[in-house]
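Hi,

I'm pasting everything inline rather than attaching a file, because the server keeps stripping attachments. The sequence lines come first, and each chain or strand is labelled.
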Amino acid sequence: MEEQQGARARRVARLANEPLAQFFALAALIFALYAAFAPALDPADRSAPAGAAKEPEETGERVIRITGAEATRLAALYVAEAKTAPDPAELRGVLADHARLRALAAEARRLGLDRADPVVERRLAQKLRRTLADPGVIAPPSDAVLAAWIAAHPERFRAPPRVSFDHVFFRGDGAEARMRQEAARTALAHAPDAWRDLGDSFMLGRQAGDLTLREVARRFGPDFAEALRDLPASAAWVGPVRSAFGAHLVRVTQTRLGGAPALAVIKARATEAWREEERRKRQAAAEAEVLSRYQIIIEPPDGPATAAISVDGLRSP
Amino acid sequence: MRLGLARSVRLCAAAALLSAIATPAVAQDGAGETADFNPDRNVYFGDTHIHTRNSFDAYIFNVRKTPDAAYRWAKGETVQHPAGFDMTIAGGPLDFYMVTDHAEYLGILRAMDTPGSDLSRVSRAQDMFSSDPVAITTAFQSVGASVRTGQKLDDIYNQELSDSVWAETVAAADRHNEPGVFTTFAAYEYTAVTTVADDGTFGGGNLHRNVFFADKAPARLFSTLDSTNPEDLWDWMDEQRALGFDAIAAPHNSNVSNGEMFKTETFGGEPLNAAYAEQRMRNEPLVEVTQVKGTSETHPSLSPNDEFADFEIYEALLGVYTVSEVNGGYVRQAYQLGLGLENEQGFNPYKFGLIAASDSHVVAGAYTEKDYWSKVGVVDGLPELRGSAPLGPSKDWSDEPTEGIPGQISNNAKNWFSRWSASGLTGVWAEENTRAALFAAFRRKETFATTGPRIRLRFFAGGDFDEALLDDPALVSKAYAGGATMGGDLVLDADAAPGFVVWAQGDPGSAPLQRLQVVKVTAEGERVYDVACAAGAPDAEHRCPDNGASVDLSTCEALGDGAAELKTLWRDPDRNPAERAAYYVRALENPTCRWSTWEALRNGTPPRPNRPLTLQERAYSSPIWVSPAG
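And the predicted assembly:
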């Protein structure tokens, strides 16, 4: 029975490690965690938090000050949302509402209502995460940095090579099909443009224009795309080339090398991708730095601590 | 009374159109301008039903990704799920994609959650984003109830804010639209829901429609807050069309409409008439037949002689566990109903084509069984939450909680999420990948629906098609010239013996094909014919012999052979030249593991009891309607 409860607690703890924050999943966590921890809460813990408080409302003075800068920001938000400037009464209302919220929040903190509240903890952790890797603080890279980064990730930005080709399709692979292929090859050698009347109908057409090899693979299967990779543009018919559906005689009419596009063409997309990678890197590094300042000990559900585990083992979203 | 109100609302909406959004010139599509232009038409795959953070429900599911992220994902980039893992599309980029956020309270929840905003100060916002689960749920349900009843919540309703979010949505679509490469449409979801019990929640029968605009879009949308009657939506669409904003509405999840989607009377209970049929078909030529919330093709109780009808059946009404009324909820039955109306009264309101979509609320559709993430964000973002892995501590299914909030999670998983599907995609036959070419194809219903894989279907019928055509190198152009294709009509003299070209290519990245079927529907009934088989030929009962395909459940490896391509010329053995009939194709793959089986395998736990372990992915074409001349 105890073992089962231990297993359940581990389960809950594992769920709690998932970045679930809202709605039913959130509700489940709150209830489960309350069930797990609420009985252990000592009422004496519910006193005002100790430590260096910086906000005026945390110094015991019980002053709520809405600064001029804050009032300006709130007024600007009003304009952004209502599409019109607040009149003096509306502005007073906005500021008073805000002050009321701040005062109630300050009092709630004085009473310790923020302590051992899993939602507050989760919210604080989320806020810290956002602070640690706020995309807003990532300045765009210089062209040189961006170019170097693109060069280091060529596969992400290289324009894919494209190919245009005509093909004659043959279903099946029996002797009869091979004979028909051979006859068609002979015919094409004499009259290269007679191809439209040869072979079997192919569902996706007999001409393919300016396709990436990935698209060729999607339409014909990977083996066919692989075979086309090395075929030069030429007036000659080659093959048979096998596809997912049968055999094809192929005439490559045009190839376009891919290669690195000009920076100007991909700058916006590359900047976005660089930012995303940078954001993830900074977030991971900042979190690792915070965690390194904590000794994290995870005890088994029953009994004393047997080992402290490394933070490297903790999953971060 | 309601109608009068709706009319005046429409007048206001029409007035708002005077300031229509100007679409930039990047979307100027001219026929024949792209390299892959093909007069015999190419096939393009896409998803017509995607939600982002701007949908009121998606925001509560912790979705924070934008329409831009949605389009980037469809083009092949990796995007993060709200539960923290990466999502990348299997099988390469899609050809087209539509963001269809709910029009109701579009963008409002995000504003309610923006510290310092006016909307964040209303008590409903403080409840919604509080730490009290009861307050959160109550506030969220109050918004859902408002969407259902059409009664605006004055404290959070802000049409100008929603208009500006819509303008951003349209701009994102225009930014990502690239003729010849990737097509987007300005689109949204109209979220009508029937009332089954007025309990202050969203719960009810689904009458949702996705509305997508041909190119330019109006500045203000028509939502259930204007009218909850879908027929008023059609009136509005007719007005928009007259103003230059052509659009198509596609209903979805008729399977959970409580039998209200395909009725024999109007929304208001009046008899159907020719004007109704004409207006419905002008505005709703397509129906989404498969998506994450199950398949709406047919139901085993409606098609007892179709042994493949029991496929990803989902029956819970929205937001509740109540089972939906079957009658009136499935497209095959609607085809039959429409043919009966046409025979008796000369009009058919149910002559629609078929499309498919995901309805994903996490900007990215989960189309493949092997890599599934369902659709409601953090609510079902993990196997335990969607019921493919046990929520209880044991490694089997013996101790699932049934009470308390974990019980609520497991009940939702049991009744909803574990019954959802990794589906689907729309295939479109069009000359090139542009808005103009794709929209014209949607309009003529030259579309087919798949449950995820990129199976390709072609389907033609002609009065003088014969076996020789099948081997003709110019089959496609001759079939287009001499007959009808999916979505079209074929009118025949009594002495004609029509031939059907039925043709499918399997997805090279998925399982091979097992059989090709034609479903025939008349006013009197239905019949399913196997017409081409991976192994052997159909027997006297029109069924393929077993091709021996199976799945190794210990690895999910698919075993046995199938066909890369199936192609045949078929004639209806039961043809009655005097009767109207609708014919559509259904192509079935060999069996593969269902998503829940893949997840159980990876989790090292047994699959949830009473769910299918395997399924046969499939594709459905739009029908060809054959009718006697005169």
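The first strand of chain B starts at residue 42 and ends at 50.

If the labels don't parse on your end, tell me and I'll reformat.
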